[in-house]
Amino acid sequence: MKNLKVELPPLKQTQKVRFERAMELIKSLSSTTNNSVIVADSISVNHKEAFLKGHGTSLIDGDLLTTVCGVVINVDKLVYVRTLRARYKPEVGDIVVGRVIQVAQSHWKVELNSTQDGVLKLSSINMPDSVQKRMTSVDELNMRNILVEDDVLCAQVGETLRDGSLQLLLARSHKYGKLDKGQLLKVDPYLVKRSNLHFHFIETLGIDLILGRNGFIWVGEHAQAHDPMVVDDENISSKTRQNILRIGNAIRVLSNLGFTVTLEVIMETFNLSIMENIDIHDMVGSEFHVLVTENQAERRRRCA
Predict the structure, then answer these.
(1) Is 50 part of any domain?
(2) Is residue 302 a part of any domain in this protein?
(3) Of 5, 61, 201, 282, which has the fewest beta carbons less than 10 angstroms from its beta carbon?
């Protein structure tokens, strides 16, 4: 496995030795070790059989070379490189978290960490009174009473436009809608794997966690069943606020290290910070990054 870049705070010499030792163990246990490539690496293919060169590859003097960093993927005869830090490419059914960037005529534009913005139509949401009805000009005038710029929301990708430039988002379920009393985090989309469950309620902490397929992650106070477009003005307790911040920093550390972000790994990192008496602010420091790497190496060794 090539040394794909991770983002770390400055390490002391002893920390660097520990970190490199743990990373070497992780690489030796990784199932994708031989598939990770950097620019100009040669991809092994059977030239006696027909193959199709896909994104991130180029055929030069009979050798199939990579043009980007990432992981080599083989799908039947197609060979391509999945770039690790590419922007989100939407697929129908994806659960996404986004931020409103514009209130337009009969729709909102939503930032999705994609090459194009998402579109949430007024006709596709639950109105504050929870009544489904034909939208009128009055409803359009009142759109800012529902969502405004910088509001965060959760939705599902319904379809893409014919030119592929925009995604239409569906939010007709009470699982989706406006999010408040929390923080929005951004990780590389490849760190969030497609799953049957992207909504998590961490009952012991009173926290909702939404892992958006687009790399936007929401950590907030648990929302009781109510209209998703109505904001609850009650203050967050100090304990819940601390839990939100600690979970958020756990996700930041995992993202910096390039580890897949799942509920299990997040909670392991959260619990590690408490067990090691790491202050919330110190979680983003070099020592905790090394501790998390060592913990993940030991975890993978046990599972191997």
Answers:
(1) yes
(2) no
(3) 61
CATH number of the domain enclosing 51:
2.40.50.100
Q: Give the span between the Cα atoms of 57 and 59, in whole angstroms.
A: 7
Q: For 66-76, what is each residue's pLDDT tens digit?
A: 988 888 888 88
Write a three-state SS string for the chain: CCCCCCCCCCCCHHHHHHHHHHHHHHHHHCCCHHHEECCCCECCCCCCCCCEECCCEEEECCEEEECCCEEEEEECCEEEEEECCCCECCCCCCEEEEEEEEEECCEEEEECCECCCEEEEHHHECCCCCCCCCCCHHHHHCHHHCCCCCCEEEEEEEEECCCCCCEEEEECCCCCEEECCEEEEECCHHHCCCCCCCEEEECCCCEEEEECCCCEEEEEECCCCCCCCCCCCCCCCHHHHHHHHHHHHHHHHHHHHCCCCCHHHHHHHHHHHHHCCCCCHHHHCHHHHHHHHHHHHHHHHHHC
pLDDT of 95 above 80? yes
pTM equals 0.84
Residue 53: give the domain boundaries: 38-84
